[in-house]
Amino acid sequence: xxxxxxxxxTVLAAGCLLWRPAPGGGIELALVHxxxxxxxxxxxxxxxxxxxxxxxxxxxxxxxxxxxxxxxAELPTACYLVDGRPKQVRYWAxxxxxxxxxxxxxxxxxxxxxxxxxxxRLTVGQDRELVASLLGTLxxxx
Length: 142
What we know:
Number of strands: 7
Oligomer: single chain
CATH topology: Nucleoside Triphosphate Pyrophosphohydrolase
CATH superfamily: Nucleoside Triphosphate Pyrophosphohydrolase
Number of helices: 3
CATH class: Alpha Beta
CATH architecture: Alpha-Beta Complex
Number of domains: 1
Radius of gyration: 14 Å
Shape: globular
């Protein structure tokens, strides 16, 4: 689904459902807390001019979580309005490959949670739905 504003402009963004193997088995997901919105979400952000969505997704993970990652399967695209402007966010499954989080102006906290707890912590329903898509993708071997 594509959302287009009255001016024909849609804000394009990209992000990841960042995951890593959990110490006792299963996986953990990284969620970011954005103090500006006081919400918990998946790392994501706007594309820069001329930047591909894949490149933006990896850059946003690095900027918001301090983690490097390896992109996997593409997940469903989220379309919604922000302050009356349409926004389209492409998401990927991404395995964390290393890094260290440093709080910054945009993201002040990162937590790693099992999928069920992550779903409960996420602020927006669409973000919760993406967790199910990620789990289905990982179960399929992607």
